[in-house]
User: Fold this.
Amino acid sequence: MLALRTVLGRCLAGPARGGAAVLGSGGGGAACIPFVQTARCYARPVRRKRKDIPSHLDDLPPTMLKKDYANVPIINSVDDVVKRLLSLEMASQKEKMKIKTQQLVEKVRRSPNDNGSFEVQVAMLTAKIRTYEEHLQRHPKDKNNRRRMLMAIDRRKKLLSYLRRVRYDTFENTCKQLNIQYTLPPPYCRRITKRWVVKKAFCRKVFEEVRKLKAPERLKQRREWQARARAAKEKEAQREGTAV
Assistant:
């Protein structure tokens, strides 16, 4: 590295000493041209091609109109260029998400005016979660959106568990229509650590020692109960004998 700096310094100082330019023939300028070119033409990083990630918005036809212009009565009389501008071919990701969310909601809603039932909330969260999953496949280090996706998944789990408890037929229909694979949570889940294992072993040892210390007292109580039961039976037998 030091030698390269020395050579470059001589090349830059060559015109001042020899009175000629770097590209000229005087002052040793021609000899330092390859070094300058080598220093400037550094290697560029190779860009990797992005993988084609399938999207849940691919099934939307590009000729479909946007949500805000689909029910406009004058839309059928406009020019083809205007229709193309108002279609999903020129739409953004946000506008496509509106159409996809509306399609999922239409599958599970109870009535045309239903906008806030548990099934509708599950459909809206499902569209969000699938969008987050596609985004994280392209940008796996985006921790903010990963956190939002996990929060949406937890919210959807709570809604589905409530539906499964209260209206099982609706729960089955929702999972079937939205293509959701619901897995039952474990009855008890705890992260096993070294501290927890040591504490558990210590508690078990203490419990066994206490049980050994209380064993004679329990045996004594058991013998007393047996003696009382035997005495009560004898009294009952004596009463029956006197009655006869």
Notes: The helical segments are 2-18, 33-40, 80-85, 93-108, 118-138, 143-166, 168-178, 194-243. The radius of gyration is 40 Å. The first helix runs from residue 2 to 18.
